[in-house]
Structures are given as structure tokens and as C-alpha cells.
Specification:
Elements lengths: L1 H29 L27 E3 L9 H5 L5 E6 L6 E8 L8 H5 L5 E3 L14 E3 L39 H4 L1
Antiparallel strand pairs: 1-4, 2-3, 3-5
């Protein structure tokens, strides 16, 4: 009996040392001591790689806009404000503001735009010192010749195929029933 308890003691001690060592191994891995490449970037000097499909700052091309307000209606938090004079083909957009303090970057405004005059770019640095500065005017003369890039286009899922209708089996006249009736 004494050997059993001594053996159990040493197994428990070994298990405690092993699990502590394993836990420290995982911790050191996340502290970047055991890795070759650094996790952090020296941000102003080194820019991060932006993944395709990233939703950043809005790009608005006034020359393409037809002033339909679809983007303003599609926005779930009402962060887009458009000042339009006139109606129809004579409409003139005077102001197009996006309040980034409210914006969810959901891309619903871009999807609703029928002429692709609005999309979300790869620009990610939208930091401001005061909240009022987060409401930005998007009309920029430098955007006059821009067109939506392929990677910013929203991939619309294909329509599901219509189920194939199986041909109805031909009903054969049952022989013998006609004569019995």
C-alpha cells in the first residue's frame, strides 16, 4: 500500500510539472519569444496588408451620381446626408456627407447604388481628434475620373436554378375495369 501512494504522489508531481511546462510553452508562443517573425508592425513606417473585400472609407464620384438617394435610404443608421437641388435629370448634388461616428461599414449603400458612383475603398485610417470631424464631405474633384474597381464590386450570388419538373407518368387505362362497370 505504501508503494501505491508514493507512486501516485510522483505521478501527480510529474503531471503538475508537465502541465505547467506545456502552459508556459503556449504562453511564450503568444508572447512572440518562440516565433521568428514579429506580430506587431511599426505602423506609420510599415503599412499593414489589406485583405480583399475590406470595407474602408467611402469613395463618391459626383459625375456619375443621378441623385436618386438610394444610398441614403439603404443606410440602416442614417449616417449619409445628401443635399440635392432639383429633381430628376436636373438634380444637382451640393453636398454628400458621411458621418463615420455612426457608420457601420456594412456596404448596403454601395449595393443600393444603381450607377456604381459609391463604393468602399481600402483606406482604413479615419481617426479624428474631435467627433464633429467624423462627418466628412465626400465630394472631391479628384474623384471625377474614378470608376469602381473590380475588387470593390459586390459579388451578387447567382440565382438558384429552377427545380426540374419531373414528367408526369402516363396513366395507362386499366384493362378489365371498364368492362366490369
Amino acid at each position: 500500500m505504501a508503494t501505491n501512494s508514493v507512486r501516485a504522489y510522483f505521478l501527480a508531481a510529474f503531471d503538475g510539472i508537465y502541465t505547467t511546462f506545456r502552459g508556459m510553452q503556449i504562453t511564450l508562443k503568444y508572447l512572440n519569444i518562440l516565433r521568428e517573425r514579429p506580430i506587431t508592425l511599426q505602423y506609420p513606417d510599415v503599412k499593414p496588408d489589406i485583405q480583399p473585400g475590406y470595407r474602408g472609407k467611402h469613395v463618391y464620384v459626383k459625375e456619375l451620381c443621378i441623385a436618386c438617394r438610394m444610398c441614403e435610404r439603404a443606410c440602416p443608421v442614417s449616417c449619409i446626408g445628401i443635399d440635392i437641388e432639383g429633381k430628376g435629370k436636373n438634380a444637382i448634388v451640393h453636398s454628400y456627407k458621411v458621418d463615420y461616428a455612426k457608420c457601420l461599414f456594412c456596404n448596403l449603400c454601395s449595393e443600393a447604388c444603381p450607377v456604381d458612383c459609391l463604393w468602399l475603398s481600402q483606406e482604413y485610417d479615419l481617426s479624428q481628434y474631435v467627433r464633429a470631424a467624423c462627418a466628412m464631405e465626400m465630394i472631391d474633384p479628384a474623384n471625377a475620373n474614378l470608376r469602381i474597381p473590380e475588387k470593390a464590386k459586390v459579388a451578387k450570388p447567382p440565382k438558384p436554378p429552377k427545380p426540374a419538373v419531373a414528367p408526369k407518368p402516363k396513366v395507362e387505362e386499366e384493362q378489365g375495369l371498364e368492362g366490369k362497370l
